[in-house]
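Form 7-S
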Amino acid sequence: MDLRYFAWLRERIGTGHEQVETEATTVAELIDELKRRDEAYAFAFSDLTAIRAAVNQDLVELDAPITGAREVAFFPPMTGG
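Output:
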């Protein structure tokens, strides 16, 4: 699975993109898996109210399924003007 990180998430994790193999079935399970990797991921995902996700470029809630997904992206909330 292709993971993409944007804005301050990219800065905290130290990369904007990576490939992972996961047993997770939802975005939330994937986040839990990532947080256990090391302190950078734990810090980046410490406040889930400040995280948005997209699965295959569709905005989703954190309980959304990821089984069979090609890409999951994480980013802070967006504002418009």
